[in-house]
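S2.1 Query sequence (Low temperature-induced protein)
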Amino acid sequence: MKRLIGTVFAVVLVGFMSWVGFFAPAFAAVSTQPPGHEEVISPDGEQYSSREEAYEKATEAASDPNGLDKEYQKDLKIFKKENPDQANLIEKAEAAVEKVVSDKK
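Output structure tokens follow.
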């Protein structure tokens, strides 16, 4: 009898845990900030007051002929600072790409 009660209890407990796990993401997604006022932080540490502002900055960089290259150089500088052991690997890859591009001309 104890074994049957223990088995039923285990099944009910596992069922309850699965329902709680099903609804947990809905509770986790609740934001404390009003909609449209979330703070956005870019990888380079710049802080924007909204996603729209970050989007505008990105579109400005994309529309500028040298904007994407400037953003790439800024991101590369940050990457090299954070990963000094892999910085040499990036320089070798860039040199290999330059060689392939120049050989095709």
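The CA atoms of residues 61 and 69 lie 9 Å apart. The first helix runs from residue 2 to 28.
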